[in-house]
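Quick one: examine the sequence and fold tokens given here and explain what the tokens say about the fold. Here goes:
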Amino acid sequence: MFPIPENTDILLADAESENLYLSLIEQINKDFNLANEGIDFPLSISPDELKIQLHEKIYRMIQYKFAEYLNLLYIIDVSEIEIKKLDGSDLVILAEQVAFLILKREWQKVWFRNHYK
């Protein structure tokens, strides 16, 4: 059964320990490009840098490209219920929480593909 990570650091550590970190980066790049939000994380990016850059990208999208942000969430298939639970009063914290939800959904896709192929 899929192990639900509690936070971004645990998720990224799990991805690395299962040798699926590169697949996770590829999945993120693929889905962002499907949403016409060109992002190209290099496969050599460190987990900490990935976390920071994804957070910054989501923050900018919420502030300046809200319709594209909603489209991205739809394409990635982030749970609408989980998004509605978030407190949007602080954009920095909101962007961090959304980045985690995106990572969690992308990790779920990669994990299931690997374990049930």
